[in-house]
Prior knowledge:
The structure holds two protein chains of two kinds.
Chain A: H1 14-33, E1 37-39, E2 46-48, H2 50-78, H3 91-97, H4 101-119, H5 132-158, H6 162-169, H7 174-190
Antiparallel strand pairs in A: 1-2
Helix pairs in contact in A: 1-2, 2-4, 2-5, 2-7, 3-4, 4-5, 5-6, 5-7
Chain B: H1 11-14, H2 17-33, H3 37-53, H4 58-64, H5 69-80, H6 90-116, H7 119-129, H8 132-165, H9 173-201, H10 220-237
Helix pairs in contact in B: 2-6, 2-10, 3-6, 5-6, 7-8, 8-9
Amino acid sequence: MxxxxxxxxxxxxxxxxxxIARAALFAALMGAFALVSVTVPVTSIPFTLQVLGVFLxxxxxxxxxxxxxxxLYLAAGAVGAPVFEGGSAGIGILLxxxxxxxxxxxxxxxxxxxxxxxxxxxxxxxxxxVSPARLVVAMAVGTVVIYAFGALGLxxxxxxxxxxxVLAGVVPFVxxxxxxxxxxxxxxxxxxxxxx
Amino acid sequence: MTLVYEPGSTPxxxxxxxxxxxxxxxxxxxxxxxxxxxxxxALTGLVxxxxxxxxxxxxxxxxEFRVVLPVVVAxxxxxxxxxxxxxxxxxxxxxxxxxxxxxxxxxxxTAAYVRTTPVRESRAVIQRSVPGRPGQFLGxxxxxxxxxxxxxxxxxxxxxxxxxxxxxxxxxxxERVRLLAVAAFARAFDRADTFALALQARCFAWNPTxxxxxxxxxxxxxxxxxxxxxxxxxxGAT
Lengths: 196, 238
């Protein structure tokens, strides 16, 4: 039997509750996006919307809670929520069991970097007030972080050299990333979404 | 068809989640040290044993990891290819091919854990192994992700369906991605607001009651296996 602890209930304050709920919903949405594949015209390479989720985590939630949302995504996947690529899960994937391992570890870092570059501090500003150039630079840097980690992960997990890692893990996805960057810019500039 | 917990009464279900996580971690370490044909053969035998104890079908589990398979197959081929004669160097492809076998073995071990461990237990492990508020945040957050994942998957499927029946699939890709993301995020934010209110109404606290975890005699074989794997990994690495 489990003993219920009734003494000293330590309530979570209002703002933190909202931030935790948003971070959790964001992480769950990343998991839902892992199953959505859209095909890029011409190259016909399918891609998921996960990196778009990382962009928006940094931009909408800011560096602190955006990063926290991505950490939650990894933690939930590690203990078995089917949130990784194609509905896979498990701590084995984060320990180097799957080729996607480098990309996954880069998500929290990229969200923090993007959030910091967009907002300039840990304070969250209204995203539509940030200049488009700044948004593009932030997302481009985030993309570089994700793919650099991704290629390194691929070299480690698959025991291949840098050329093969870039050919298999970076080049095919460049068109899709440009497309997601444009889409994210459209979303933020249209000001329909905000975590205010 | 995704990998989720399935209730059952196999010996693997009855193990403490901590011993299962320990076995997984040491298995990954050993697999990285012994990425050689004899090493992987021995580990394959071990995986077969673990899957049998967890009554998990290897073929079904591999099917659930099917998105990973293209990279696993492509990596050795890409590494073996060269520009110019002889076009394919077999020796270069051997290392990546062994790594691909290792990937498959680790994925199968992971599948056995996920299939036999309920969410509540995993949450309790997180909260007990990461101290303080960060551990509590990770534990409760992971539990919320489990709770909302099916709901949001349903939201996303419904949005895509609505797009499709209105011939939205004819729009350019950027437009489709933008519309899907806006609708999905707007719903997720709405749900987060309602959820936060509901949590507060129910005295959302940093210190909830968790299921008790107890290591018992039945965990001894698993712990012994983890210890053996750890020793083997350390011996092999030095």
